[in-house]
Structure formats: structure tokens, C-alpha cells
Amino acid sequence: MSEQATGKTPEVRAVSPAWTRIEKARHPQRPYPMDFIERIFTDFSEIHGDRAFGDDEAVACGMARLGDEEVLIIGNRKGGTTKERVRRNFGMPHPEGYRKALRCMKIAEKFGRPVISFIDLPGAYPGLGAEERGQAEAIARNIREMARLRVPTISVVTGEGGSGGALALAVSDRVLILENALYFVITPESCAAIMWRDANQKQLAAEAMRISAPEVEKLGCVDEIISEPEGGAHLDAEAGAGSLGTALKKHLAELKAVPVSVLIEARQEKFRNMAQFYTEG
To answer: Could you tell me which of 74, 152, 147 has the C-alpha nearest to residue 113?
Structure first.
């Protein structure tokens, strides 16, 4: 029976602070990873293909310069138009995307170049073809290999950092997150559908999940929050990229001063200690 037929007025729910951040992270004008890459780096030279199946257009990899430093860049692509978004699978990588990223990370390791990844994706693509080609194995292999890469590594969550699809590009010495970005194991809509069997409870789920930048920093999942221009990065992409570029240079200089063996040990210890909780018996 409709609301009009019962004479009841629809419930008006105030937008929660957590959901406000989600709306900023998903804003259609928010800069995507490649927008930040184009503003921060120079001489970007893209590398294509995974040498096994094909070239995933949802993932871009290539060598570039951060100031005077030669680095490897990884970023997922979402596309600006509807046609581009469909071609790039709305930024959700297939297994060949993760294998391409790993192939390029190994090239960077061979030549001693730091790896910097940019992440804005709700998760890895869960389609039948992706599963048939080994999506879970590709993600697991990336997590293992990133944990022992013998070069400095930095990851940046610029929008949504979703589940294992994000983690497969984020096992790094430093994990940065933009002020209005999110880092989660599942989207609030999916969480609400599972926990309350009602996707409309997404705001409640967003509050309960603790997925905003300040909350995941408190949990030890990220190392630094990068401030955005007032109102969000979508209002001033140049200023947002400037702040992020400055932070990247600072962290890269610090990491390069640390011996590789110490970096690897600290990186592995950091991720082993995440989500560890102890209670007294």
C-alpha cells in the first residue's frame, strides 16, 4: 500500500556525517587517480599487458618522474564519459589488471625504482569471466609479492578503497588517504543488505563500519591523512593534487633513507599487526 493511500508521511532521515563523506568520495567531479597522476608527475610512459591474457583498461601502469625521482606509477582508470566507463569497467580491475600491475612492480624492483599506487575502486570485478581467469589468485599473489618488494612503496586511497581489490595495490610502506576518501571491506549498501536485509540502511551501515579517513587512521590501517581543499577535492583539483604531491615527496625521501631490508621487515610487521585485538582472560 502506498504512503498516499495510508495517509502517512514518508520518514525524513537526516544525512549522517559518515554518509556526507561518502557522497564527497563518490562525487562525479572528484578527481580520479589519473587526474592526480597527470598533475603530480611528469614523463609518464605507460606499460601495457599482463603477458598472459590481455591488457586491462581499468588499470594504468607506467614509469614517470616525481620531481627528479624516477618511479613506477599504478592507478585504476574509471573514465570520464559513459562510453569510457563501460570500456574501463567502471574502474574495477580484472585479474589481468592485477597481473599487469605486478609485472610492472617487478620491473620497478629490477631497476630500483619506488612504486606509487593510486586507488579509487569499490572492489575487484566479481564477474564470472574474472573468476574463471583467477581473480582471487591474482589478488592474493599481489598481496604476497608487494609485502616483499625490495623498493620503497607508497599507496594513496584517493576515493574509495574497496576490499581485496584495493588491498592488492596497497600493501605498502606508507598508505596515505585523502581527507574525504574511504577504506572498507565492503560497500555500505552491500553491508546493509547483508546485516539488515535492506540496502536503504546504508547510512546506518556507514556509521557502524568506521570507514572514513579519521576512523581508519585510528585503526592503524593508514599512515597519514592528506588534507583536501575546503569542501572537497572536486572543488579544486589543482590544490588537492598540490597537497598530495608534497606529501608524496616527503614520504619518498624518508623511505629512501631506510635500508631495504629494514623497509621490508617493517612493512610486513605493520600489516601483520593490523586488526589484532587482545582481551584478558
So the answer is: 152
